[in-house]
Specification:
two-stranded antiparallel ribbon, 4% strand, 2 domains, binds zinc ion, 159 residues
């Protein structure tokens, strides 16, 4: 999770490094001139630094999108969102790298870590039944219980 301040720090350092490399190698302040008159080393250096800059920016864009996504799902600040899994409960966004990106249950609309979402609950459905797509483990348990109740009721009528 990149913090805005850290990111701006990195961002600034990278830009300074790119301009410095350009200036030291071809005495110009325009990094694109390196591709015209710079040495191979200068081209490689500026390209690498530029790639880091772009990667960082894309990461930041992705993070803002995730924030908006989680905020839209919970209606609360993304920083407050926690995974509802009983064995997790960790904040959603800072644990993306270890627990996976947020995924929203199509039934209860709560965001979960992908890894926690995919854990199969310890319930079984009557044969021929399928869990609806994108149900979180909690909703799967509720769904399975409801199906069993229906089935039992139905079987009771047969007796
Ligand atoms: Zn759910
Ligand atoms: Zn989790």
């Amino acid at each position: 999770m990149i913090k805005m301040k850290q990111f701006l720090g990195c961002f600034g350092t990278l830009i300074v490094l790119i301009i410095l490399t350009t200036y030291l190698t071809i005495s110009s302040l325009n990094p694109f001139d390196v591709y015209v008159s710079g040495s191979v080393l200068a081209k490689v250096l500026v390209s690498l630094l530029g790639a880091m800059l772009v990667t960082g920016m894309l990461g930041l864009v992705q993070q803002s999108l995730l924030r908006i996504f989680v905020r839209g799902a919970t209606g609360a600040p993304a920083e407050d969102a926690r995974c509802p899994a009983p064995d997790c409960g960790l904040p959603l966004l800072p644990y993306i790298s270890s627990h996976g990106p947020p995924i929203i249950c199509s039934n209860c609309h709560r965001p979960w870590h992908l890894r926690c979402f995919k854990k199969e609950p310890a319930v079984e459905l009557p044969s021929n039944y399928r869990f609806p797509k994108r149900f979180c483990p909690d909703c799967k348990v509720k769904f399975a219980r409801a199906q069993r109740r229906d089935l039992d009721k139905w079987l009771g009528q047969l007796d």
